[in-house]
Design goal:
The protein is α+β, with helices and mostly antiparallel strands and 467 residues long. Helix content is 64%, strand content 6%. The protein is built from 18 helices and eight strands. The chain has a four-stranded antiparallel β-sheet.
């Protein structure tokens, strides 16, 4: 495995050199590059670089490197590119122009929602693992002197998550981040218990992340409105004051109440879904998640997951959705068995399978199942079967949830939580993965027929040609 600097140095000339790079960023698994001329990219060369798990060409050129690796490669890439301030500004302008040209309003909104919540995922994962470990110690009656400290460390972020949501919301929509965080902090302020709205006393935390998002968004628009008429000499005093005052009062006497009702409905609806329609819900969610990811629509679920984690301590939807990755792994193994003579494809599968088992599905999706066509559909069938398995146990009252969002596959095991104890929770989730693997494998093995060529290279009659 090359060092982060070597990997960055190998990638730079393949994407057209420093002059072609207008912006550099990264998410959990992908290096995201803004490119002045995408046609200059040597995509085959990029895919062939050791350490590259896949490539996605969307609003930015995205190189899948995997969690941890991408966080180390990105700063090295930035150093090599030498992004000056002027170049960064031009890159941001270029990317914004491209987004306006290529994105529908719906997709742009989903990207903005993702930009608000995705930066929070590392903290959610870290705190979620600590919370799970602390719960295990409590159940076993071990280290009783340590568990209070672990509980404080694990719960601190969740107690103040609304502040981070408000900060990121204001930043994403062009406001002052700290003002967004200040207004969002009202949601969890103990003093709101003394405020009555619509004849009902408010409670700290009412409305949760949805209330924080709405409050910060309103604050951003109020701030922008203030700057249109407040004299420059008074701006530093008047604009922040009016922003916090007006948005804060609206939060107390409207947004917290409305967002609280929505949050409660989300929690009630999710519980009802898994408890009354568990297998069917798992079938649909597990089966359709891969297409949702392909279209970027899965980003709409991020606030839902976060709301459930904040309310109940875990989201019951993520384990169902995670089954899509299991179906993908099963389908890829079947293709590996079927395509005995395709050395290149089998090499791709071998290198991508470990990432797939850990819930990083892009290399298998974009490198294997999607280009072949039918294996993508059979992978969805495997995901549907795994989701139905987990949903069946939810119907019986054995709920399985995740204390954080982001990981799936085997990487989700440390983040599992449920209502019937850790052993049963792990067994149900593991059973779902095995079901997804098996159904994905068997469906693909039965329905996928690789093309068989004659001596002149033409497919024989009746053979399935990958699409």
């Amino acid at each position: 495995m090359p060092t982060p600097r070597d990997l960055a140095a190998a990638l730079l000339p393949l994407v057209g050199g420093a002059a072609n790079v207008t912006s550099v960023a990264h998410c959990m698994t992908r290096l995201r590059l803004g490119l002045a001329d995408p046609s200059l990219v040597d995509e085959e060369g990029v895919r062939a670089v050791p350490g590259v798990l896949g490539v996605v060409d969307d609003d930015t050129y995205q190189i899948v490197l995997g969690p941890g690796v991408v966080a180390r490669v990105t700063p090295e890439f930035e150093k090599l590119v030498g992004l000056a301030s002027e170049l960064a500004v031009r890159g941001a302008e270029f990317q914004e122009e491209r987004r306006r040209r290529n994105s529908t309003p719906g997709r742009l909104l989903l990207r903005r929602v993702a930009n608000i919540f995705v930066p929070l995922i590392p903290a959610l994962i870290g705190c979620g693992i600590l919370a799970g470990f602390n719960g295990l110690l409590l159940n076993l009656g071990l280290l009783e002197g340590v568990t209070p400290a672990l509980a404080a460390v694990a719960s601190g972020f969740m107690a103040l998550i609304v502040v981070f949501v408000g900060h990121n919301t204001a930043k994403e929509f062009g406001g002052t981040p700290v003002l967004g965080g200040a207004v969002a902090a009202i949601v969890v302020c103990p003093g709101v218990a003394k405020v009555t709205a619509f004849g009902v006393a408010l409670s700290p935390g009412q409305g949760g992340v949805l209330g924080a998002l709405a409050a910060a968004l309103l604050a951003t628009y109020i701030e922008k409105w203030c700057r249109t008429w407040v004299p420059a000499t008074l701006d530093v005093l008047v604009t922040p004051t009016l922003t916090v005052l007006l948005a804060g009062l609206a939060t107390l006497y409207g947004l917290m109440y409305a967002a609280g009702a929505v949050s409660s409905a989300i929690g009630t609806g999710a519980n009802w879904l898994v408890e009354t329609a568990g297998p069917f819900a798992g079938l649909i969610l597990g089966g359709l998640f891969l297409p949702l990811v392909m279209l970027g629509l899965h980003q709409a679920l991020i606030p839902v997951h976060t709301t459930l984690i904040e309310q109940q301590g875990y989201t019951v939807l993520l384990p169902l959705l995670a089954m899509a990755g299991a179906g993908q792994v099963g389908a890829a193994v079947a293709v590996y068995v079927r395509m005995r003579h395709d050395v290149s494809l089998r090499t791709t599968i071998k290198s991508a399978l470990p990432a797939g088992l850990l819930g990083i599905g892009e290399p298998l999706v974009y490198g294997v199942s999607l280009p072949l066509g039918r294996p993508f559909l059979t992978a969805c069938a495997g995901g549907a079967a795994g989701g139905a398995f987990v949903g069946f146990f939810a119907l019986l009252g054995d709920r399985v949830g995740a204390t954080a969002i982001g990981p799936s596959g085997w990487a989700l095991f440390p983040l599992l939580a449920g209502n019937r104890g850790p052993a049963l929770t792990v067994a149900v989730y593991g059973g779902g993965l095995v079901t997804g693997y098996l159904v994905g494998f068997l469906a693909t093995y039965a329905l996928f027929r690789p093309a068989v060529t004659t001596t002149d290279g033409a497919p024989t009659a009746g053979a399935q040609t990958p699409v």
